[in-house]
């Protein structure tokens, strides 16, 4: 019986050591090591048609002024371009081509503003090396997502809503322009 008790205490002690060591290493290793794996796009937020979507648009306009400074504007524009790219991806998956096209164009508009904020930061003497690496990873991830969208949607179509005039969408051109815009940053 004493042997079983000794074995039990030995296992318990070793398990505690392993758990303590693992927790210590997780806390000790800087989080930047984990962040270098790959760029991750956000989960889709409120989508068009939701009752909270317009509130999010107002919040977005307010936060534009909340993120001030060169790096603040970099973070804001990158966050918004990610948001609208994910929105476009989701809308294209649900075959909401007109709304997806609009979201992709909004993503492009925000993406155009990302690099100028880094250029201003460099002119102001700030180190932008890490932010440029983030922009490079984001550009690569965006290109990957856009190419997947391009392969799974029709190249061109006429969107015919129930109560308004049809709209011609050249999705292939929109996807190509979005990819070209992001390739300039790699």
Please provide a written account of the structure.
By secondary structure, the protein is mainly alpha-helical. It folds into two domains: 1-37; 39-183, no CATH class. Helix content is 72%, strand content 3%. It is built from eight helices and two strands. Helix 7 (129-152) packs antiparallel against helix 8. The longest helix is centred in the first third of the chain and has 27 residues, at 2-28. The chain is extended.
Q: What key phrases describe this protein's structure?
A:
mainly alpha; 8 helices; single chain; 2 domains; two-stranded antiparallel sheet; 186 residues; 2 strands; 3% strand
Summarize the SSE layout with pairings.
Elements (H helix, E strand, L loop, with lengths): L1 H27 L2 H5 L17 H14 L3 H24 L3 H16 L1 H10 L5 H24 L4 E3 L7 E3 L1 H13 L3
Antiparallel strand pairs: 1-2
Total helix count? 8
Largest sheet: 2 strands, antiparallel
Determine the structural class based on helices, strands and strand pairing: mainly alpha
- N-to-C terminal Cα separation, in Å? 67 Å
How much of the sequence is in beta strands?
under 5%
């Amino acid at each position: 019986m004493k042997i079983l008790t000794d074995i039990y205490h030995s296992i318990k002690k070793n398990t505690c050591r392993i758990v303590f060591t693992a927790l210590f290493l997780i806390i000790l290793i800087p989080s930047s090591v984990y962040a270098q794996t790959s760029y991750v796009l956000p989960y889709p937020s409120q989508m068009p048609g939701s009752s909270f979507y317009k509130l999010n648009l107002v919040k977005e306009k307010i936060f534009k002024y909340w993120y001030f400074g060169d790096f603040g504007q970099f973070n804001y524009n990158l966050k918004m371009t990610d948001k609208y790219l994910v929105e476009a991806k989701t809308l294209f998956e649900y075959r909401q081509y007109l709304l997806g096209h609009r979201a992709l164009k909004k993503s492009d508009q925000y993406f155009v503003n990302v690099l100028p904020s880094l250029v201003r930061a460099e002119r102001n003497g700030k180190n932008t090396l890490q932010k440029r690496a983030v922009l490079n990873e984001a550009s690569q991830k965006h290109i990957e997502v856009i190419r997947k969208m391009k392969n799974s949607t029709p190249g061109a179509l006429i969107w015919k809503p129930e109560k308004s005039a049809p709209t011609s969408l050249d999705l292939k051109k929109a996807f190509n322009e979005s990819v070209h815009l992001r390739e300039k940053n790699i």
